[in-house]
Amino acid sequence: MRAGHTPEIRARISAYAKLQTGPRNPFYGKRHSVETKAKLAAAATGRLWSEAQKEAHRIGNAARSRGWFINTEGYRIIRTESGRWRAEHIVIVEKALGRRLKYGEQVHHVNGVKADNRNVNFIICTNSYHKWLHNEMARRYQREHFNA
After folding, report:
1. Side-chain-facing half-sphere of 116: CA atoms under 13 Å
2. Is 22 helix (H, G, I), strand (E, B) or coil?
3. Are 76 and 91 in contact (CB under 8 A)?
4. Distance between CA atoms of residues 122 and 111, nearest Å
5. CA–CA gap between residue 33 and residue 46 (Å, rounded)
6. What is the largest CA-CA distance in the chain?
7. Cα separation of 57 and 39, whole Å?
8. How far apart are CA 18 and CA 21, in angstroms?
9. pTM (global) more than 0.90
10. Which of 77, 100, 98, 99 is nearest to 89 (CA)?
């Protein structure tokens, strides 16, 4: 119970807790089936995967052994010379600039294709401009496609 509870609320919480202990609890004395115990044990060790999850894990490991993979956001992630995993578009921009990106700088893909990592497809912008750019593109798309 939190310190800010009134005495009335504390009494109600205590009464409810007493109702749920021992034989009053609907699960009191119940046992898990053998199947449920096996599922719980497998889940605890991380072995309860669907076939799709197993396939994604296998593909992911194969891609990582190649030195690159596509992350969940659609960006290509590569292993750099130092052994770190970094987004490829950021590595390319930093090589073109000859420096690391500053705090608050972001890389925007002009054509919106995250896997298109050509130099001509990048704009380096501030966080606020990048957010404005995406909002403006969404607004224009809605106007073009949904407004008559």
Report:
1. 10
2. helix
3. no
4. 9
5. 20
6. 71
7. 20
8. 6
9. no
10. 77
